[in-house]
Specification:
With 180 residues, this protein is of the alpha+beta class. Helices cover 32% and strands 19% of the residues. Helix 3 packs across helix 4 (47-59). The longest helix has 13 residues, at 47-59.
């Protein structure tokens, strides 16, 4: 799966999406394993058209990849936290590289406001989380300060229907779309 960051700088300029493109995106966000045939049927285009549109969305960087929504607690990552960081001015690229290498890092965002970076991490337990914050993060020279916000409960939102259930959008006969 391609990452945000520098890829956006290399991608072609954004093309406007039509209603069919938006329908395809909603369907794939709900069920990333949907077959080309089922996508074509649901958006009322030929399989060749659906295939070409999905590939164009991938090539244009609109679709960055396909993934599974994970229940982190069931996957042995029972402690989650958002960590805010204040960093040295103009050190974003250096800090981003170091944060990407952290075990359990799930999302990194450069933001505006009272802090500079928002980091989401999933760890097996609070002891591992403490080690990550106090030893790994605070030893990065460009990190000036951190604040840790423990996550007590999470709810993934389904892009079409709202909160996702345990197997939202997945059907037993789904296939993974072909990708280049």
């Amino acid at each position: 799966m391609a990452e945000g960051g520098d890829r956006a700088e290399q991608a072609p300029p954004p093309r406007p999406l039509d209603a069919i493109d938006r329908d395809i995106l909603r369907m794939l966000q709900t069920d990333g394993r949907a077959s080309i045939r089922s996508v074509a049927e649901r958006v009322h285009v030929s399989r060749a058209n659906a295939y070409a549109r999905i590939n164009r969305l991938i090539d244009d960087g609109v679709i960055r990849g396909f993934s599974a929504r994970v229940n982190h607690e069931r996957a042995g990552q029972g402690a989650s936290a958002y960590i805010t960081l204040k960093i040295v001015q103009n050190s974003w690229r250096t800090v981003r590289e170091q944060l990407q290498a952290l075990p359990g890092a799930a999302h990194i965002a450069l933001v505006s406001g009272d802090f500079d970076v928002l980091l989401l991490v999933h760890t097996p337990d609070n002891r591992t989380l403490r080690e990550l914050v106090l030893t790994r993060l605070q030893s990065i020279p460009e990190v000036l300060s951190t604040r840790t916000l423990l996550v007590f409960e999470e709810t993934d939102l389904d892009p079409v229907t709202g909160p996702a259930g345990p197997a939202a959008g997945l059907s037993p006969d789904s296939e993974v779309p072909d990708s280049p």
